[in-house]
Specification:
Elements (H helix, E strand, L loop, with lengths): L1 H41 L57 H11 L7 E7 L1 H4 L2 H14 L2 E7 L11 H8 L5 E5 L2 H4 L6 H18 L5 E4 L5 E5 L5 E5 L3 H14 L3 E3 L1 H4 L2 H11 L12 H25 L2
Parallel strand pairs: 1-2, 1-3, 3-4, 4-7
Antiparallel strand pairs: 5-6
Length: 322
């Protein structure tokens, strides 16, 4: 009985060893198979995690590459003065998409497909004639897109009707713009007999003349930043109050742009509108003593705001074409 028990124990140990050996043989077989498969895969070019820099893929300029796009540009966050309140989203409105051809030209230059110069002409009143505001936009455009020409054509005290002269329209057309920006409204709003119908017709006269000479050029209108009007209380003292006609002027510009398929950047309402636009600039110490024009820091901020709005619209276009 004792012998039989010993024999059974020996047999059990042998069976366990055989079972372990079989398990190891199975593991070894798997490893050999995996090594053979790996050699077969390595017989081809390894698949890169990102597209190789020296390889060209059709349409790759607008496809995600390692979670990045090659045609969009990061929009830096603007820092507004602490006094600014009740701001709206800094975006431009282009309901008909008339700026799409311009965005495409801009995109082709950014990705290096096209290298010739893209021309932007910014026409307006003294805010443009002072150069600081438009030049800030132009510098940012050139920094990020390279071959950009940004020309400002401003006249002190100008209404939009000021440019409805053949010689002035010819001067604008001779610059061969790919985008035309029109910035008026401040002087119109300082007419105490302001009439929105008259203003609407004056804008129409200017745009019609420009379209006759530049039929394929998209136009972007901007609204004025806001201003005060002054009253003389005595021989030596003036008092200022917010110009109540600016809001009506802005509404007319927006209505005209919407009726006639123009894009619009509404600086007035973005910066606080009827309640805060003037107060924001004034309380931040960015207006000149005349309460109509702005200090260089104010114009530079307006330039940064316009460029940010342009860049957002450009990125939206790029994201929408694929």
């Amino acid at each position: 009985m004792e012998r039989n028990s010993m024999t059974g124990g020996v047999l059990m140990k042998k069976w366990n060893l055989d079972k372990v050996s079989a398990g190891w043989r199975h593991v070894l077989c798997c490893l050999v198979w995996m090594l053979m498969a790996a050699q077969a895969v390595q017989a081809q070019d390894a698949v890169p995690l990102c597209p190789m820099p020296d390889k060209v893929t059709a349409g790759s300029d607008t496809l995600p590459v390692c979670s990045m796009r090659t045609d969009t540009i990061a929009v830096l966050r603007l820092t507004y003065p602490a006094a600014f309140r009740q701001l709206a989203d800094n975006v431009l409105t282009d309901s008909l998409g008339i700026l799409k051809p311009f965005w495409e030209q801009l995109r082709l230059r950014h990705i290096g497909v096209v290298t010739d110069t893209l021309r932007i002409v910014h026409v307006g009143d003294s805010h443009i004639r002072g150069h600081i505001f438009p030049r800030r936009v132009g510098e940012a455009m050139q920094r990020d897109f390279g071959t950009i020409s940004y020309t400002d054509v401003g006249i002190n005290g100008a209404f939009c009707i000021t440019f409805t002269r053949p010689d002035r329209v010819d001067k604008i057309a001779d610059l061969h713009p790919d985008l035309l920006i029109l910035s008026f409204g401040t002087n119109e709003s300082h007419n105490r007999r302001y009439n929105s119908m008259t203003h609407y017709k004056q804008m129409d006269d200017l745009v019609r003349m420009l379209r006759e000479r530049l039929p394929e050029v998209p136009m972007l209108m901007t609204t004025p930043p806001g201003s005060y009007e002054s009253f003389r209380q005595s021989r030596r003292r003036r008092t200022y109050k917010i110009n109540p006609r600016t809001d009506r002027t802005v509404q007319t510009i927006r209505r005209y742009a919407d009726d006639n398929g123009l894009a619009v950047w509404d600086l007035y309402n973005i910066a606080g509108g009827v309640r805060r636009a003037c107060l924001n600039w004034q309380e931040a110490g960015l207006m000149r003593p005349d309460h109509v024009h702005y200090l260089p820091e104010g114009y530079r901020l307006q330039g940064e705001m316009l460029y940010q709005a342009l860049l957002k619209a450009y990125n939206d276009y790029c994201l929408g074409i694929r």
